[in-house]
Write a structure and sequence with these properties.
Shape: globular
Strand content: 5-15%
Number of helices: 9
CATH architecture: Alpha-Beta Barrel
Helix content: 25-40%
Structural class: alpha/beta
Strand order of the largest sheet: 1-2-5-6-7-8-9
Radius of gyration: 19 Å
Number of strands: 9
Order of helices and strands: EHHEEEHEHEEHEHHEHH
CATH superfamily: NADP-dependent oxidoreductase domain
């Protein structure tokens, strides 16, 4: 299908994703660019988020052992979940976590590091020039992302001077491609009129590359047919004028709700 990258996380599959990948496909992993995430840990009763440098370093070391190879990229996973603390303390905690991942690159525990954030709204105000700069940013993308999250994602990328080619989108269907909303909203409206063969699923996927502008999208792999359909969607072109108008409508709605 032309897919050459796998994205996973330390906490996926009940904290067994890395070992599962290695057990099932250790011979294939060297042929893929492999990214993962750290920052979510087993807790009492349910997973917990932490930016503690010692825990992050231990998770990186365990990741290397379980995968049997060095991951090409490691994202700091949803740091905003650990930053519901006073701003001065939050900035220091984020800075130390970033420094931990930057140091991991230097000692060979990962090829590069980045930030993965489901809700980046708290993050832009915490970033300053003294922090190490990530190589990549992963954020939510697509028609169901609110204007506040879109703008926060773009502000965070601007703070760290991360170009769109190094911004990754996730959850382009709002977490569920079978959600009833896709039977009510026809995303084909946002694809160029010449592309009449495009499906609604493909149109939603393709437009997500511009909401916000990203260089790649991470999607689930449960259904190979679904994955092939999305790979085929890359040949279609989004209608940038209609997407621009859509963003303006999102902004106007947010302004009315704020008033």
């Amino acid at each position: 299908m032309g897919i050459t990258a796998i994205d996973t996380s330390f906490n996926y599959r009940g904290f067994t994703a890395h070992a599962t990948l290695a057990n099932v496909a250790s011979d294939l992993l060297p042929h893929f660019v492999l990214s993962t995430k750290v920052g979510t840990f087993p807790g009492t009763g349910r997973p917990e988020h932490s930016l503690d440098p010692v825990r992050l370093r231990a998770a990186l070391e365990q990741t290397n052992r379980e995968l049997g190879r060095v991951p090409d990229l490691v994202f700091l996973h949803n740091p905003e979940r650990s930053l519901r603390i006073p701003a001065a303390v939050a900035k220091d905690a984020l800075g130390q976590a970033c420094a931990t991942l930057a140091a991991a690159v230097k000692v060979g525990l990962c090829g590069a590091w980045g930030i993965s954030s489901w809700d980046p709204r708290p993050l832009p105000d915490l970033v300053d020039t003294t922090m190490p700069r990530p190589a990549a940013l992963m954020v939510r993308a697509g028609l169901l992302v609110g204007i506040d999250v879109l703008e926060a994602s773009e502000a965070l990328a601007a703070r760290w001077r991360i170009a769109p080619d190094h911004i990754w989108g996730m959850s382009p269907f709002g977490g569920n491609a079978d959600d009833p909303v896709w039977g009510q909203l026809d995303p084909r409206f946002f694809v160029s009129e010449e592309d009449n063969a495009v499906s609604a699923l493909q149109a939603a996927f393709r437009t997500a590359f511009l909401l916000p502008e990203v260089g790649r999208l991470a999607v689930g792999t449960n259904d190979p047919t679904h994955l092939q359909e999305l790979a085929d969607a890359l040949r279609y072109e989004p209608d940038t004028d209609r997407l621009r108008a859509y963003r303006q409508l999102l902004q106007e709605r947010a302004d009315r709700q704020g008033a």
